[in-house]
């Protein structure tokens, strides 16, 4: 991927425009009964407890459709559990938006637009946006180790190869670096999706018949989005510089945290408008958050191992062994989904606190 255009080597990573067919129904209200007025009120009320099939994972049908599509695409068990958590967060935010809208808030539509952008990020992250994916499907093999090609960025692959062959990293440190490289890739991907969405929004405004009608709150929202993207780009550049140093020098003993998301939060918190006491309290909370992430990572690995074993037993084992392995896999799958949601919800809460503290500086 030859870096060019917008920002330090990131414009070249831009994905094609996302399918717009998914956008119109994004925030539209769903009918209370699936069959409209065909049935009587009594009939509908009697059927209410079983409106959704037991297999339904979400209260919003559009999210169920994405979930079923992901399962058809045979995403890995870990990716499915991560997608499940992301969709749960998305559903929570959309219901909150509907409540605000019913109260007459979000008049400029910025929260609605933010929800559209967040769903687009999910679609791109899990390859649900209709783009052809040249990558091979996940092998679900832990013993083979991660493949550099899945980083999708020659610069990151070069760093990974440098670290693997340097002899400066233990196995645990290589695992830690791999997580950091993946996290960096996801930040670049999210930046590209948001930049593409902003470009489309600006194009729509430029083609508007009455540009004067687009001024005021909408212009302010655009400025805010530009500032957010500029800040993201700066953090991405700083993150890459840090990864480059680590891949060449190895990890030092002075590191405060190990998990990439926690490292990002700590860096942001130190530049926010926190008092010394508040910053120390935040640091302690980040330690607890890191433990929660480590627990989630443990269950993800157990889920992958259970998936491999289940596939093997289904091929060669008897009915009793298959049944026991299916039960264990189902338990691990549910626990991983639960922990994934808790981690993402906690991350959202911590990010919100930092954002509010930074805004208080203005």
TrEMBL record:
Entry-linked SUPFAM superfamilies: RAP domain-like
InterPro entries named among the record's database cross-references: A2-macroglobuin_RAP, Alpha_2_MRAP_C, MG_RAP_rcpt_1, RAP_D2, RAP_D3, RAP_sf
Domain Alpha-2-macroglobulin RAP C-terminal: 151-362
Keyword Signal: yes
Record flagged with keyword Methyltransferase: no
Signal sequence annotation: 1-34
Gene3D superfamilies per the UniProt record, alphabetical: RAP domain (1.20.81.10)
Domain Alpha-2-macroglobulin receptor-associated protein: 27-133
One Pfam short name: Alpha-2-MRAP_N
Coiled coil stretches, renumbered: none
Keywords linked to the UniProt accession: Signal
PANTHER family tied to this protein: ALPHA-2-MACROGLOBULIN RECEPTOR-ASSOCIATED PROTEIN
Protein name: Alpha-2-macroglobulin receptor-associated protein
């Amino acid at each position: 991927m030859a870096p060019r255009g917008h920002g330090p080597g990131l414009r070249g990573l831009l994905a094609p425009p996302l399918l717009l067919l998914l956008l119109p129904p994004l925030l539209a209200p769903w009918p209370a009964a699936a069959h409209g007025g065909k049935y009587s009120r009594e009939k509908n009320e009697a059927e209410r407890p079983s409106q959704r099939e037991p297999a339904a994972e979400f209260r919003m049908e559009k999210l169920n459709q994405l979930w079923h599509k992901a399962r058809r695409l045979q995403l890995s068990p870990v990716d499915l559990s991560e997608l499940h958590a992301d969709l749960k967060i998305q559903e929570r935010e959309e219901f909150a938006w509907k409540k605000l809208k019913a109260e007459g808030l979000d008049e400029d539509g910025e929260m609605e637009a933010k929800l559209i952008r967040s769903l687009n990020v999910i679609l791109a992250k899990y390859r649900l946006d209709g783009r052809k994916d040249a990558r091979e499907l996940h092998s679900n093999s832990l013993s083979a180790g991660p493949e550099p090609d899945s980083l999708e960025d020659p610069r990151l692959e070069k760093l990974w190869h440098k670290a693997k062959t340097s002899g400066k990293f233990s196995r645990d440190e290589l695992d830690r670096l791999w997580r950091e490289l993946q996290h960096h890739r996801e930040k670049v991907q999210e930046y590209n999706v948001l930049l593409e969405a902003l470009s489309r929004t600006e194009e729509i405004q430029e083609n508007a018949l009455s540009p004067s009608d687009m001024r005021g709150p909408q212009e302010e929202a655009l400025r805010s989005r530009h500032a957010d993207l500029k800040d993201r780009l700066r953090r991405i550049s700083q993150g890459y510089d840090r990864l480059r140093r680590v891949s060449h020098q190895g990890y030092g003993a002075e590191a405060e945290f190990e998990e990439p998301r926690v490292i990002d939060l700590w860096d942001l918190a130190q530049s926010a408008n926190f008092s010394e006491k508040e910053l120390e309290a935040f640091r302690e909370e980040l330690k607890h958050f890191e433990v929660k992430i480590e627990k989630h990572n443990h269950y993800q690995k157990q889920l992958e191992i259970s998936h491999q074993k289940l596939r093997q037993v289904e091929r060669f084992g008897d009915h009793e062994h298959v049944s026991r392995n299916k039960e264990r896999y189902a338990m691990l799958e549910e626990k991983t989904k639960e922990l994934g949601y808790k981690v993402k919800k906690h991350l959202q809460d911590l990010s919100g606190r930092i954002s509010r503290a930074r805004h208080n500086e203005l």
